[in-house]
Amino acid sequence: MPTQKLKPLQFIKSISVVKFLPIFLVIVALFNSYFIVVEGHVGVVKRFGEAKGQENPGLHFKLPFIETVEMIEVRTRKNAEKMASSTKEQMPVTVEVSVNWTVNKEAALELFKRYGGLSQFEQRILDPRFRSATKDTIPQFEAEQLIQDRASAIQGIERRLAEEMEGFPVVVDNIQIENIILPQKYINSIEIKQTEKNLAAAEEHKLERPRFEALRAVNTADAQAKGILKIAEAEAQSILLKGKAEAQAIEAKAKALKNNPLIVKLTEAQAWDGQLPSTMMGDGVMPIMDIRAPASK
User: Fold this and answer.
1) What is the distance of C-alpha 122 from the center of its chain?
2) What are the sequence ranges of the domains in the chain?
3) Which residues contact 139 (CB under 8 A, 6 or more apart)?
4) Domain 77-182 carries which CATH code?
5) What is the DSSP letter of 117?
6) What is the tens place of the pLDDT at every residue in 29-60?
7) How buried is residue 133: exposed, middle or buried, by Cβ count under 10 Å (0-12/13-18/19+)?
8) Most buried pick, 27, 50, 135, 278, via CB within 10 A?
9) Measuring CA to CA, which residue among 45, 123, 39 is closest to residue 79?
10) For the chain, percent helix, then strand, then coil, each to nearest 5?
């Protein structure tokens, strides 16, 4: 067979590919020799599909074409479920619930090895247990309790889910009942019941108002009487104290006069106005004589 000769242009192209192929492979290897883990994630390094270790946020290097990296989010994630259930009185109800959960950062590699990633963990572990905890808790409450006291139902779901998720490398918290959908007939009956309750409360308030006003008048009169009594007691106490003080002063003065008769003379001298008496009286039948000087005419 005759040998087929390459055309000059084809020969040049083949030489160019062979020449630049190593350079191209080196460039590709360089771009595949590092990876970056962003905040809120950890990188699980796999070698030929086998998980070997995990890396924290930052720049890291790996063996090109041999090692690959799987990103695991360690920030808080939210799962929401809408499910049908029934209340304690066997009334059908649809609830929309949500749960926040976070992967334990140090256990991200373990989670990947055991479950293959976050989506697999959600589908196989978290979501079924979350639905089970909710459906086991809701039938323990009557419809009116669910509407008026969601917190108790949420606490019940949290306790049940915490028991179910014990031992898994995640933290589950902040469960919320987003919405409760009850039959329209029940909602109408609740509205009628609430209206009747409000009317009854208004009537009771009308009946109680006169009693409250009478009670207020009695309290006011009682307060006034107590005020008057306090004033009288204060005045009596003041008079008593004043009389006691005067008696003590008289007693002290009498004692002083008894112990020192000259005080009487001193008191008389201090009270004298400096004039002699205008009349004098004698013993027996001695008449009263006017000894004042005759007035000048």
Assistant:
1) 32
2) 15-73, 77-182
3) 85, 86, 87, 88
4) 3.30.479.30
5) S
6) 788 888 999 999 999 999 998 889 999 999 99
7) buried
8) 135
9) 123
10) 55, 20, 20
